[in-house]
Fold CoB--CoM heterodisulfide reductase iron-sulfur subunit B family protein.
Amino acid sequence: MTLKYAFFPGCTLESAAEELMISTKKVADALGIELIELNGWTCCGASHIQDIDDFLSTSINARNIALAEELGVDKLLTVCNTCTLMLRTAKLKMDKNEVLREKVNVGLDRAGLEYQGSVEVTHLLWALLQDYGLDKLKAKVKVPLTGLKVANFYGCHILMPPKVMGFENHRNPQSMEMVAEALGAECVEFDQRLACCGFHAVFPAQKEVMDMTGINCLSPKDAGADCIVTPCPLCQMQLDAYQPDAQKGFDRDITMPIIHLPQLIGLALGISPEELAINRHVVDAIPALQKKLVTV
């Protein structure tokens, strides 16, 4: 039976992180997962809109969920930590507050939509463990990632707040390690594993965030990692695209390749780095992969 999800790509996949859209679709096809992109989805608000208008924040994400409900699927899937958080926050509010739900649905009715609460919001990382299964994932591996040492960088929004996210222990998550090990990779322990990437504060606190970026790269480097893997495009962007800027504040070389989770999976499925758009990254990850993985 084919797994089928409504798919919310979010703004980043259509712009700065197009390589994640490419690799997500490639991996979904290889695993036999059907992704149905929402028709007419809108930005989730990127964890900022609620500070200006909380009702609007809830409404736009309730609309996104209602679009998924129209597809007749059980789950709405994202590959962005922040999109997952925003959608799940809206769902929690709508499901617990009948007055709010009625008020939001008045607005949605003008667009011919109604939020019903029938769809669960999930992330690709969670879906791999909860729906697809590690045994099935292992069976799909064509190129075991033996010898590749990965540093799993979770990012804040896939873990917190736990009352909204709640997939696993937010103080000691293991989902990333479970997936990486199923692919044959070796996971390294490093101090910044659960650190913030700083993306959402890069403009008001640029110096502090650049210092964080450098430390987030040096920590896994000192632990012997070949690359950082993250389930969030915003974390990937902060650690990859801003890495050259962060380097200016450090005497030591902080160079560390930053890989999207679907790209790591795709490598193990036998998909080339170019097909996974790894060549689009700011920090060239391909040499590190070629050094460890003979078939890459």
Summary: The longest helix spans residues 206-222.
